[in-house]
C-alpha cells in the first residue's frame, strides 16, 4: 500500500526587496518536486506581508496583488483563508528579510511544523554579513578586510566612518548588511563618491558593510546536510561586469559559470574544507552556498558570504553545483525535505516540560 503524499507548503514572495527572485525560485521548486511523494501547496506572501493561499498564488503575486488581511489579528492569512489547514511541512523559498533572517523560522516553530533549511539562530546570524564575518573571524577563518557601521553611528560621526573606510584603500564595496542578490551593492572608486554611496546603502538597511575591493575570482561552493555535510566541487562565476550585479544575475545574464572551477587540486580541497567549516561555525543545516574570493595578485582565499537560501532555479549555481557532485535537482529537493523532517523529529524529542515539583511560582 502506497504512503499518502506529504503536503508541502511552499513559501515564497515576502516583504523583502528579493520578492521577485523568490517567485522565480519557488516556481522552479514546484515544477521539480517529486509529485509521487509530495503535494505542493503554494503559500505566497504578498508585499504587504499577507499570506496568499487562494486561487493561483504564483499568478497573484506576479500581478503584484495586495490582498486584504483576514479577520484573525494573530494570523497573517488573507481574508477568506483563515480556516486553511496547515501543511505537513513548509519548504522555505523566501529570500532576504522575513524568510532568511530567522523571522519565518520563529513563526513556524510556533506552529510546530517542520521546515526546510537552517534554524532561527543560523538564519539570523547568516543573513547579516557583518555578524557572519565576526563569527568566521572568531574561528580564524579568512575574511576580506572590512569595517561596519550602524545608521546611528553614520549620522553621528560621518567623518570618522569615512576615515575608517578610506583606510582600507580603493576601490571599496558598499553593502547593506542584510540584503542579498547584490541589491544595494556599489563599487566605489573615488573618495568623493563614498558619502553618497553610504547614504544610499542606508536606505536599504540600518547596518552597512564597507569592504576592501579585491582583484579576485569569484568561487562558489554548495553545502548540503547537517553535522557532516556534503560539500560540492567548487564552481566559478565568470563575471562580465566589474562585479556580479543584480541586473546581470537575473536580467541581462552576461556572466557565465564554470563547474568545476579550474583550480589546482590542493586549492580546491582547501576551499571545500573552508566551506564546510564556515557552514558549521554558523550552525548551518539543510543547505547553503558559500562564496569565496580568490585574490589574483596573491593567490589568497577569502570567505565572502554565506547564503542559506540561495537562488534555486534549475540553472542557479547551487543546484548546478550539487548536480555536478552527484545530487540532481529533484533528489536535492527530496533530501532537503528529509533533512527538515529529521531535524523536526530531533527537536520534538527534547524534554521541554521541566517541572520543579513545588508551587514556588504560584
Strand content: 15-25%
Major sheet size, sense and barrel closure: 6 strands, antiparallel
Output the number of helix runs.
12
Category by helix and strand content = alpha+beta
In total, how many beta strands?
14
Helix content: 25-40%
Q: How many individual domains? A: 3
Classified in CATH, the superfamily of the largest domain is ATP-grasp fold, B domain
Q: Give start-end ranges of low-pLDDT stretches.
A: none
Query: What is the N-to-C succession of helices and strands?
Result: EHEEHEHHHEHHEEHEEEEHEHEEHH
The chain-level mean pLDDT equals 92
- Euclidean distance between termini CA atoms: 52 Å
Oligomer: single chain
* CATH architecture assignment name of the largest domain: 2-Layer Sandwich
The value of Rg in angstroms is: 21 Å
CATH topology of the largest domain: D-amino Acid Aminotransferase, Chain A, domain 1
Chart the SSEs and their pairings.
Layout: E1 6-13, H1 19-32, E2 38-45, E3 51-52, H2 57-62, E4 89-92, H3 103-110, H4 120-127, H5 129-138, E5 146-150, H6 151-156, H7 158-166, E6 172-176, E7 186-188, H8 194-201, E8 207-212, E9 216-225, E10 230-231, E11 235-238, H9 246-252, E12 256-258, H10 265-281, E13 286-295, E14 301-307, H11 317-324, H12 329-348
Parallel strand pairs: 1-2, 1-4
Antiparallel strand pairs: 2-3, 5-8, 6-7, 6-8, 9-10, 9-11, 9-13, 11-12, 13-14
Amino acid at each position: 500500500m502506497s504512503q499518502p503524499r506529504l503536503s508541502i507548503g511552499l513559501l515564497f514572495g515576502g516583504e523583502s526587496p528579493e520578492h521577485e527572485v523568490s517567485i522565480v525560485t519557488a516556481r522552479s521548486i514546484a515544477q521539480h518536486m517529486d509529485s509521487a511523494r509530495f503535494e505542493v501547496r503554494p503559500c505566497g506572501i504578498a508585499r504587504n506581508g499577507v499570506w496568499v493561499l487562494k486561487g493561483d498564488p504564483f499568478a497573484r503575486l506576479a500581478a503584484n496583488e495586495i490582498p486584504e488581511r483576514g479577520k484573525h489579528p494573530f494570523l497573517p492569512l488573507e481574508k477568506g483563508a483563515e480556516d486553511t489547514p496547515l501543511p505537513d511541512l513548509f519548504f522555505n523559498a523566501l529570500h532576504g528579510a522575513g524568510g532568511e533572517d530567522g523571522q519565518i523560522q520563529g513563526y513556524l516553530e510556533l506552529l510546530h511544523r517542520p521546515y526546510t533549511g537552517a534554524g532561527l539562530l543560523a538564519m539570523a546570524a547568516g543573513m547579516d554579513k557583518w555578524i557572519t564575518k565576526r563569527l568566521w573571524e572568531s574561528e580564524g577563518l579568512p575574511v576580506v578586510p572590512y569595517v561596519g557601521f550602524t545608521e546611528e553611528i553614520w549620522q553621528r560621526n560621518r567623518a570618522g566612518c569615512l576615515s575608517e573606510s578610506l583606510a582600507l584603500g580603493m576601490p571599496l564595496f558598499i553593502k547593506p548588511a542584510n540584503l542579498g542578490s547584490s541589491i544595494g551593492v556599489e563599487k566605489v572608486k573615488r573618495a568623493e563618491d563614498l558619502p553618497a554611496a553610504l547614504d544610499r546603502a542606508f536606505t536599504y538597511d540600518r547596518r552597512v558593510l564597507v569592504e576592501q575591493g579585491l582583484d579576485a575570482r569569484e568561487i562558489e561552493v554548495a553545502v548540503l546536510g547537517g553535522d557532516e555535510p556534503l560539500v560540492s566541487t567548487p564552481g566559478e562565476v565568470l563575471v562580465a561586469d566589474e562585479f556580479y550585479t543584480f541586473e546581470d544575475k537575473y536580467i541581462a545574464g552576461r556572466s557565465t559559470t564554470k563547474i568545476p572551477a579550474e583550480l589546482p587540486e590542493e586549492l580546491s580541497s582547501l576551499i571545500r574544507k573552508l566551506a564546510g567549516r564556515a557552514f558549521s561555525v554558523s550552525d548551518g543545516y539543510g543547505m547553503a552556498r558559500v562564496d569565496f574570493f580568490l585574490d589574483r595578485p596573491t593567490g589568497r582565499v577569502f570567505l565572502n558570504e554565506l547564503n542559506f537560501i540561495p537562488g534555486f532555479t534549475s540553472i542557479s549555481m547551487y543546484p548546478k553545483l550539487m548536480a555536478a557532485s552527484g545530487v540532481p535537482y529533484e533528489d536535492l529537493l527530496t533530501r532537503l525535505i528529509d533533512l527538515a523532517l529529521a531535524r523536526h523529529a530531533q527537536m520534538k524529542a527534547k524534554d521541554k516540560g521541566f517541572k520543579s515539583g513545588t508551587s514556588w511560582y504560584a
